Amino acid sequence: MNWSKGLLRLWLVLSCVWVCVAGVAATIIWNNNAPARESAAHWARHEAECRTAGAPKSGACLLQARDRLYPIPNAVYLAVVVVPPLALLIFGWLALWVARGFLT
Question: Quick one: how far is CA 51 from the chain centroid?
Answer without folding.
Answer: 31
